[in-house]
Amino acid sequence: MTQEARVSTVVESLTKAPRNIAFPQKDGRPQLISEIFGQNVFSFKQMASRLPKPVYSTFLKQLRGNETIDKTTADAIAHAVKVWAMERGATHFTHWFQPQTDSTAEKHDSFLTLKSSFEKGFEEVECLDSLSGSQLLQSEPDASSFPSGGMRSTFEARGYTIWDTKSPMFLQEGPHGTSILYVPSVFISYNGQALDEKTVLLRSSEVLAKNALDVLDLIFDPENDVHVNQVHTSLGTEQEYFLIDRALYTLRPDLKITGRTLIGGLPPRHQQLEDHYFGKIPSRVLAAMSECEYELYKLGVPCKTRHNEVAPAQFELAPIYEEAMIAVDHNLLTMDVLHRVAHRHKLKVLFHEKPFKGVNGSGKHCNWSLTTDNGINLLEPTAKPEENYRFLLFLLATLKALEDHGDLLRAGIASASNDHRLGAHEAPPGIISAFLGDHLTEVLNAIEEDRPLKTFGAPEMQSVRVGGTVLDLKVATLPNIARDLTDRNRTSPFAFTGNKFEFRAVGSKQSVSFPVTLLNSAVASSLQEVAEALRKQKGDKQYATKEDQLAVIKQFIKITKNVRFEGDNYSDAWVKEAEKRGLPNIVNSYDAFTRLREPRNAEMLSRVGVFTNEELESRYHILMEKYAKDVRIEAQTLLTMVVQLIMPATFSYRKDLAQSASLLKDVEAGCEPELKVLKELTPILIDLQKAVATLETEIAATDDITDDIGALCKKSQATLLPAMEAVRSYADQLEGIVGDKYWPLPKYTELFLNI
After folding, report:
1. How far is residue 242's CA from residue 281's CA, in Å, rounded to a whole number?
2. pLDDT at residue 146, rounded to an integer
3. What span, in angstroms and rounded, lies between the C-alpha atoms of 601 and 590?
4. At the top level of CATH, which class does the domain 626-753 belong to?
5. For a designed S-S bond to 385, which of 381, 484, 489, 622 qualifies (C-beta 3.0 to 4.6 A apart)?
6. What does the alpha-carbon distance between residue 433 and residue 570 come to, in Å, rounded to a whole number?
7. Annotated Gene Ontology MF terms (predicted)?
């Protein structure tokens, strides 16, 4: 890699024109989103139109858990989806699943089948296109080649992918005008243990729904309430990401190998003027965004919002809420499509939580709520939340989950990459607390203290006591607007935002399955406690009366006060206050991962039926091992870059400075400026060499830890990260001194602005 390559690449990146695609037309106009949406999805509507009514009816019964799919039904569905897919150019199908790698996996099989027949003693082979019910229902990838945390040995290779019947099948466009049929699946071992992210998510959603229905049944008033048959977790996943020029990306080994820059100093202007957020979207980025949305609409992904984020070259895509299982599938599809479309536009998408030091990192804000089959959001406070006891019961159950298992939720968002983001000024800290806002806090306080509600704001601006106010903008041509129930708190890891909780601490590159699974499980457990308290209050009555519900609400208000915090989560005062309240402040991944083994957490996850002890132990080992490997890869990458790129560049600069100083001295022209730079440069280079030697020693020290993955993770965190930071500090100092024409790596200035 040379400085000439860097310069030519920068120049090339500035001349790239946006890629244009032909947006589909209808009647001489671009097609509406509603006309494109879901056209590559084998939806229930498609299934109903292509299957005999008895077969489709049997399938719906299976979806409700009333019976399992028989061979006749499976074969009929397989044939119908094969015909539908082949009509759209499909040649292959794949079971699409989510191993514990924060990504997806797939193995393609063609529809090709050979059928033999014998005529006059000779075998005749006929070629057919087919998909059987058994092929649709399950497949067999190599289970030993995916993370299993010791549950599967190399010689125990068999594992199964099984069609997740609640997730619609879909088509992805392949090469040369062909397509591939994707079958969303779970991934289990030969003995039935969950090896993936989706199996445990489905379990947690089911147990949460069951326990939510239990609470609803206990408070069901047949004269005034509508009966609820189903409850599902609703999830909206905001995806933040960076986009940089792909040619410049190829010149950064750290970005290619680790996803983040291990060297690099901030330019004079980055995000401090706060002008990038919601700013004008660059042309190349807008072209890529539009094409990505087009691809996602065809896949039934409900993209809603796109905008510039806070940091330079940072952006966000947000969808409409869906059932959690579908939302997770769609988020993983979104990441995949963003990756592929960015390449078409000569861009590179970065999902790492902190690809650039000194500017905001990226998160994946998970907007979580509970919804019934008749469209009721159980976390909707309505205009008078103080009278909406159903809402208060589910609100307090969620707070109780945080009170009891906040450390478990912290474990769910821990990773080597997210550690660089959490606690900085764009992400919440490691203390899990909930923000409710002044109005809801007042509601809970008033109920606990048995007093009337206070009012907020000037009397003339109050349209209701609690539930929002009207804002008069004092401009005749502007309408008055309704102010929301509560403000937003961007420092809170778990903030109530109107009718849902926003779990802001999830990392941008991780699958949301695991953190949402842990959240679902904790809330399911707390709903069991709420149900038990309601049963005690109800006694022999038909249902828990308003008085019974209020007694339980008061009980849970008192025991969840510690986890509520309305202030600045970044402040030192909150750290001290949280310690007084007994809330854990978990600042690193190693400490977070150990909470998976905490008896209180392990017992809960086992009791609600989401993880077996073996599966939880496996998860602990996988997370610890991945952390250690991630940090080690970063350390070795940094070492290579410094030794092979940064030091040689600095040596060349020193050599030229020394030769220049010598020549100037010979002609008595004065060489003090060159000597001054040399004297400034040399001590830093010496310190860098010492820091490199220390890093080499620490990397070698981790080689000696082979039988204790927890110790390896702790050692990597405690020694490799500080050693890497020392190396980086000296390398970044050199970047500010060494002549620009010598520096081999694209700098932040070029990475940020060349799109």
Report:
1. 13
2. 83
3. 16
4. mainly alpha
5. 381
6. 12
7. glutamine synthetase activity
End-to-end CA distance of the chain: 22
Topology (CATH level 3) of domain 37-196: Ubiquitin-like (UB roll) (3.10.20)
pLDDT for 508 equals 96
Please classify residue 559 by burial: count the beta carbons closer than 10 Å to its beta carbon, then call 0-12 exposed, 13-18 middle and 19+ buried.
middle
Q: Compute the distance between CA of residue 694 and CA of residue 689 in angstroms, rounded to an integer.
A: 9
The H-assigned helical ranges of 450-571 are 513-538, 546-559
Taking CA atoms, 299 is separated from 292, 333, 679, in Å, by: 11, 9, 61
pLDDT value of residue 456: 55
Residues 6+ apart with CB under 8 A from 273: none
Say which residues have a Cβ less than 8 Å from residue 77's Cβ, sequence separation at least 6.
Answer: 47, 51, 55, 59, 69, 133, 136
Q: Taken in order 695, 699, 700, 704, is the CA torsion positive or negative?
A: positive
| φ/ψ of residue 170, rounded to 5 | -150, 165
Helix (H/G/I), strand (E/B), else coil: 285: helix
**Could you give the percent of the chain with pLDDT greater than 90?**
73
Type and span of the H or E element at 594 = helix 589-594
Burial classification of residue 452, based on how many CB atoms lie within 10 Å of its CB (0-12 exposed, 13-18 middle, 19 or more buried): exposed
Q: Are 78 and 131 in contact (CB under 8 A)?
A: yes
Place of tokens 């970005």: 255
What global pTM score does this model have?
Answer: 0.93
pLDDT (0 to 100) of residue 5: 74
198: tokens are 């989706």
Cβ distance 622 to 149 under 8 Å? yes
Q: What is the pLDDT of residue 329?
A: 97
How confident is the model over 252-308, as pLDDT tens digits?
Answer: 999 999 999 999 999 998 988 888 888 999 999 999 999 999 999 999 999 999 999
Cα-Cα-Cα-Cα dihedral sign, residues 598, 600, 606, 609: negative
Cα distances (angstroms) measured from residue 742 to each of 479, 649, 672: 59, 6, 21
Q: Tell me the three state secondary structure of residue 292.
A: helix
Q: Where are the beta strands (DSSP E) in 385-534?
A: 434-435, 470-471, 481-482, 494-496, 501-503
**Can you give the pLDDT at residue 10?**
74
Q: Assign 466 a pLDDT band (cuts: 50, 70, 90).
A: very low
Closest CA to 331 of 137, 201, 431, 160: 201
**CATH 1.20.120.1560 boundaries in the chain:** 626-753
- Count of CB atoms within 10 A of residue 274's CB? 9
Helix, strand or coil for residue 111? coil
Q: Which two three-digit tokens encode residue 101?
A: 């790698």
* pLDDT score of 463 more than 50: no
- Here the tokens at position 204 are 């947690």
Give dist(CA 23, CA 21) in Å, integer.
6
Residue 658: CA count within 13 A, CB half-sphere: 9
Please, which pLDDT band fits residue 424 given cuts at 50, 70 and 90? low
Residues 6+ apart with CB under 8 A from 288: 19, 243, 341, 342, 344, 345, 347
Report the alpha-carbon distance of residue 102 to residue 87 in Å, rounded.
33
- Torsion angle of the four alpha carbons 143, 146, 147, 150, in this order, in degrees rounded to the nearest 10: 40
User: What does the buried/exposed string (b/e) look like for 139-160 if buried means 16 or more CB atoms within 10 Å of the residue's CB?
Assistant: bebebeebbbbebbeeeeeebb
Q: What pLDDT, on a 0 to 100 scale, did the predictor assign at position 490?
A: 76
The CATH 3.10.20.70 portion of the chain extends over: 37-196
